[in-house]
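Much of what follows relies on a compact textual record of a protein's fold. A complete example follows; check for yourself that the lines match position by position.
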Amino acid sequence: MNRSWLKTTAFYAFVVIIVLQAVFPFYFAIMTSLKTDTALFEITYLPNSFTLQNYYDVLFKPGGFFLRNLFNSVVVATATVIVALFLAVTAAYALSRVRFRGRSLLLMTILAVSMFPQIAVLAGLFEVIRSLKLYNTMGALIFSYTIFTLPFTVWVLTTFMRDLPLEIEEAAIVDGATPWIIIRKVFMPLMWPALVTTGLLSFIGAWNEFLFALTFTSSNETRTVPVGISLLSGNSEHEIPWGLIMAASVVVTVPLIVLVLIFQKKIIAGLTAGGVKG
């Protein structure tokens, strides 16, 4: 009994430590964003007084570009997810259902591409984007994000599609369905958990990406929120507007939390799909 009690206590203590480590930075950001300039350097973990001035300055201050950067991030991340999922679904069908020589090698090559760090391909990708006349456009970000998102989405969707019953596809073929109809009307309704999971992870990756956004854009009209937040810093350490930075960080983080809460059941189903064989 004592040993069982100790195990239970140790388990819940470990869970509490992990939760605190994950939640405390966001909680501290919220607390800092609600402080005035004079209270920013006071170490307090419970709210004494708060103000929404930092949020007002970030969102509505004249001459600011944060709302424009936020809109750019929404457009870029959404377009990246749509393009990546469309290409990944069709590629997954070919890799999981069509038999051809070198299929396994091709799938391993796709996975290997995702192992290259961004900095390793930055110079070459910059030349490609400049030659396509996409520099300083949202198209440059959509193009580059899709390249780095595709290997992951193709691999996950291929694995998921392989687990779907072959009899469903054979019945559709007997009824005269084309491959595109099979993908759109047979497989996609069954693949919603995997599509939501990969789509949300791709959205988060595009939403938080900084290096490509900093390199491939040069004006506030095309920059995304990670770059916009980095430009809120002052010229010296004493001029850094921590309240504004924390308020902007909270505004950027909240949409991701809402999306995860909305689709949490689909995410769990997508992550555990194929883990149990009936």
